[in-house]
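tool_call: predict_structure(chain=1)
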Amino acid sequence: MSEFIVIKDFLSEENNERIMNYVLNKEQEFKTANILYNGSKVQSEDRVALNLYDLGELRALFLKELEGRVDEVYRELGIKPVEVPEFDMQIAAMGNGGRFIKHIDTVIHKDWELQRVVTFVYYFNTVPKKFSGGELKVFPMGFKDGNTEPVNLVPENNMLVGFPSFIAHEVLPVQLEDNRFDNYRFNLLCLICRKSTANT
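tool_result:
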């Protein structure tokens, strides 16, 4: 059992490029990112990023590929499969100074209908990469070997990272000299959720 899984070359080169082109064409539709606080979405300096929720054709493209790998991920992470999953998806873009402080993705609140179970982060960027930093810092809980030392995962184009949504993680600050949108650090976030029992 692992506490996170990394899959490189997750999509075909063609689909990786389709995601990149879709996002670049949607630049004007990105909005300031929110965080969840007491069951509500609010803006905060804890997260410096832009978000896009309209994934259009990318949603089906990504989920089709994920479907073929998700059982492997459940086994590797030691998580009971979600029988009737729902998917919470968004795209995040981070320019110079972008970051997200240490947090977890699980939400337990009486007004929140979905319980987040597994977090997937799919990275993509223009090639060659123009930014530095932006590492995903994962804080293991020591389930596998007792090791709780944080691990810094460097974002690579066409790389997927998956971990239980209760695992603490952080996005370290992005450094970018030419702060054009097409040079940003991009990721597609996909959360596998089950219906919450908080209201029952």
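agent: Helices lie at 13-25, 57-67, 70-77. Proceeding to next step.
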